[in-house]
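Researcher: Here's a chain I'd like modeled. Treat it as a single chain, no partners, no ligands.
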Amino acid sequence: MYDLIVRNLKFPSDPSLKDIGIEDGQIKEIGKISASGKKEVDAYGDLVLAPFVESHIHLDTVLTAGTPQWNESGTLFEGIQIWGERKKKLTINDVKSRALEVLRNQLSYGILHVRSHVDISDPNLTALLALLEIKEEISPYINLQIVAFPQDGILSNRGNQQRLEEALRLGADAVGAIPHNEYTRENGVESLKICFLLAEKYNRMVNVFCDETDDGQSRFLEVVAMLALQMGLKQKVTASHANAMAHYPAPYVARLIGLLKEAEINIVSCPLVSSVMQERYDAWPKGRGITRIKELWKSGINVSIGHDDILTPFYPFGTGSMLQAAHMAIHLAQMTGKQEVEEIINMVTIRGAKTLQIESQYGIEEGKPASFVTLPAMDSFDLIRHQPMCRYVFSHGKIISENKFSTPRLNMDGILK
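Model: Modeled as a single isolated chain. Structure tokens:
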């Protein structure tokens, strides 16, 4: 007898309904299970997926839009300026209360793995300390990775190099850089070398904010790939954004993609934020604001999708749902084919897991943790079109979120039957 059996589940690759048998928090059997369970749950033919993965978010900045003022230009640079003022007033309780509110919401959306960047430019490391506390508190439910992120640069902000190292000593999972925000190209390259050396010293992952600009001359992605290759870090390295790649000439892109493939690094695109923050300086015709998701994917490079911001000086919208981010990615990347839509769903699930380097403990397979979500949808197209809430969210064999759907009742005097 199993601890729990979840019945009548539809897998994306198989229209027949199956059950999942769970024991001691692990998946023990997948199929038509004749045995009974101490507890049984009917999934009503829901689509079952491995948990959603948030590859890129800023939990320290969430829910701060409008304070101390609104970002009227919509640009990254005004966002950085406003956040620079807001972060002077950070407290541990302030950061924790906002971040936990968003994490609870993410959990209801079926997100059980989150990579959050945290600004370490604050001399007191307030946001970092708050998120390290949260990481421990929510570990039974959500796997939270923390990236030490030097928002104001490494060389262009006195003390950030030391704070980056302190963040790693305190327990940050990855180290970041923002080379396009340094004073010069040379400083940007040097900042990346510092970042990679710290990752090597502390055996951590790397996640760089890379070329988040419309400037086609911003070409730090090649440096990230080269360092990943030279230092043997490869899949432990992620480049977020890479927006400038949309402006690179075709011959250069062809060479760059070859280097990216050899380096085996991950790319994260954040289509919601990029669609409104990028291309602000261009006259018409305007670009779409995102990196070359489709070309990168077709070339065999691991691409995942992040929500990035939720009600912040950088982006005053966002729900936290990975399906909302996936919906935007499909439109901007023009990936509407059947395989393409399925791949976009992979970019917020299994490809995100690869970015976070958690594949060994991720996926719906016998012997792996019983962590998965069920959604009232027929297929990937249905998921994108309706963006439903999860009916059930399971973490290590326990239901941690449940949504009892109701059917809307229309009162239209028989006009619609």
